[in-house]
Amino acid sequence: MDQQYSSALLERAVDEFSKLPGIGRKTAMRLVLHMLRIDVCKIDAFTDAISTLCHDVRYCTVCHNLSDEDVCQICANPARDASTICVVENVQDVMAIEHTQQYRGLYHVLGGVISPMDGVGPGQLEIESLVERVSEGGVDEVIFALSSTMEGDATNFYIFRKLMNFSNLKLTVLARGMSINDELQYTDEVTLGRSLVNRVPFTCK
Q1: Which helix (H) or strand (E) segment is 119 a member of?
Q2: Do residues 185 and 146 make contact, with C-beta atoms less than 8 angstroms apart?
Q3: Do 106 and 190 share a domain, yes or no?
Q4: pLDDT digits over 55-104, tens only?
Q5: Is the pTM of this model over 0.90?
Q6: What is the pLDDT of residues 177-202, one digit of tens each?
Q7: Which residues make beta-bridge pairs with 107?
Q8: Which residues, 6 or more positions from 194, have their beta carbon under 8 angstroms from its beta carbon?
Q9: What CATH number has the domain bearing residue 108?
C-alpha cells in the first residue's frame, strides 16, 4: 500500500522527484523536505533555472551538442581545429573529453548508438548529418570516440563504411586504454586523455 502523506502537495512533489533517474521515494522525500527548509527566493531561482533550461536550451545545428544558441560555443570558436571531428554518443561524452583538455577539434553528437535490441537503427542517429559535414570539405580526420561496447563497435563500423571512400580522410579510434564495455563519461580524465592523444587508425578487423 502506498504511503499516505498529511499533505497532498507534499505527496505530489515527492511523486515528481521520484520520477528522476536514480531517485527513489526516500531520496525524493529528503529532497522535498530540504527544499521546504530553504529560503523561498532560492526555490524560485531553482525552479526558474529548470524552467528556462527546458524551454530555451536547444541542440547545435552543426554538431548536435546542447547549446544556448543555434550554434554552440565550441563550433563557433575560431580557435578550435575545424579539420578534426570527434564522434561521440551523447553530450556527457563531450563534457568528459573537454575535461581532459587534450582535444581542440570539433564534435559530432550521434544521440546514441546502433542497438537493434533497443529499437535504435542508423536512421534514428545523426549519422547522415556527419556524412554531410565531411562531404562539405575541410575535414581531415574523424575520430571514433564511442564506448567500447558491442553497440559502440557496431556503430563505429557502420560509420566507417559510410566514410571510407572519402579521399584523404583519416579515420581513427581511441586507443584501448579503457576497459571493454567502459563508457566515456565514467572513464577517468587521465585514461581518457591518453586514449585520445594516442588514438590509432580505425580498422574493421
Answers
A1: none
A2: no
A3: yes
A4: 999 999 999 999 999 999 999 999 999 999 999 999 999 999 999 999 99
A5: no
A6: 554 445 666 677 778 888 888 889 98
A7: 86
A8: 175, 177
A9: 3.40.1360.10
